[in-house]
Amino acid sequence: MSATLETGGPLGATYRCSDNGWINQDLFVDWLEHFSKYAKPSSDDPVLLVCDNHGSHVSLAMYDFCKEHHIHVVSLPHHTSHKTQPLDVSFFGPLKNAFYRECDLHLKVTAHEKIKMFELASLFNKAYVRVATMEKAVAGLRSTGIFPLDVDRFTADDFAPAEEYRTIRTECELENGIQTKIAETPVTTTSEVGGPITSTSATPEIQYRISQHLRVPKYKVH
Predict the structure, then answer these.
(1) Nearest by Cα to 199 from 168, 164, 153
(2) pLDDT in tens, 175-209
(3) What residues pair up with 220 in beta bridges, in sequence order?
(4) Are 187 and 211 in contact (CB under 8 A)?
(5) Contact yes or no for 45/221 (Cβ under 8 A)
(6) Given CA atoms 78, 135, 8, 39 in this order, what sign does their dihedral have?
(7) How far apart are the two ends of the chain, measured CA to CA in Å?
(8) Is the pLDDT of residue 101 over 70?
(9) What is the DSSP string of 43-57?
(10) Which residues contact 171 (CB under 8 A, 6 or more apart)?
(11) Which residue of 45, 81, 162, 221 could cross-link 85, Cys pair, CB 3.0 to 4.6 Å?
(12) E strands, 6-151, where?
């Protein structure tokens, strides 16, 4: 990759490219190396990394690297990142808008001359330094119920579309002579800092994940 594509980009960033422009498993492992360098996880102080279910995040190389470098990975449930991924909730939207504004301003200043590839990093950096704040990071973690942990962050209304899909699917299965049973028993767990926590608003899958991760050691938040 040409070094000119990094011109004016964020300090300390790592730059990579792929054939189709999308992240892949190899690039994600490269990013993990970059992440580990700054997070500095150890056996005494592991790091919890929350990821969505993109295919690039799941590979044997990724598993081996995380195991060796004391990175514990939690994968969010499918099709929930708009509610459960902190970056989606509080950061990516403002970042995109800020980047579009920088591009519009650049076009006005240059009399609508086409933006060149080696100018993108600089334009992105101007947007990034204005939007990437600690307040947005904290807001994202709080809004998704990840930190501080809030097992009742989502209500039944948040899961209404999924319930509708499940109802339709069940009806189709019954029509085909297949009967399914869905457990709806609330999950009760005990946190490290309080008494029993019972969650009835989340789906069984999310309840199970919450119950498991209440038992893990405390992690650094990045």
Answers:
(1) 153
(2) 666 554 444 444 444 434 444 434 444 455 555 55
(3) 47
(4) yes
(5) no
(6) negative
(7) 29
(8) yes
(9) SSS-EEEEE---GGG
(10) none
(11) 81
(12) 47-51, 71-75
